[in-house]
Amino acid sequence: TQLLEQSPQFLSIQEGENLTVYCNSSSVFSSLQWYRQEPGEGPVLLVTVVTGGEVKKLKRLTFQFGDARKDSSLHITAAQPGDTGLYLCAGAGKYNNNDMRFGAGTRLTVKP
Amino acid sequence: NAGVMQNPRHLVRRRGQEARLRCSPMKGHSHVYWYRQLPEEGLKFMVYLQKENIIDESGMPKERFSAEFPKEGPSILRIQQVVRGDSAAYFCASSPRTGTGDGYTFGSGTRLTVV
Q1: Gap from A34 CA to chain B (nearest CA, Å)
Q2: Which of A65, A99, B6, B31 could form a disulfide with A54 if both were Cys (CB 3.0 to 4.6 A apart)?
């Protein structure tokens, strides 16, 4: 079983602050994805990273895949209340690139 | 252009009854995955199916739980003789056949409450 550990588990910040959340594993992944989940809904894919050292930007969100493809980080600049949600990372498992296993998530609250 | 459809959205069952959760994948997707989520927790993998085949059921309890994805119709997650501990949100996701690693499309989930 490939375990993904996410930290911190909970994060509460004020609007306008910056933050970084982490996703770590002892396993190498062929790809890693970040999802955001809002209460009462299913997770929604934010980004997929494939290449070690890759950096992807999505407006105020910056995603980085570690050189060894074992870890990833998500940095949010100038957080807004609309960023509130559960951020999940998922790594491709043993059967193919679509067999994804999820971390427990970071629950982010951005206060106005 | 419907996404992944799950029904019902909410399901209440008494202890000992059966729960049937349905998932219709996106059009053209032949891989289906079921996950369980408890309040304030992440997603726990249960089972991965392709049409008429169970690929990986390592996350599914050995007893009372079963899943299928028939040639025609939705995927079904079946829980027999439900207990209070089965109360959770159950999410289904689907992905395309080609396995490009483009990620999953999730349904909105079924929230099962066992009373």
Answers
A1: 9
A2: A65
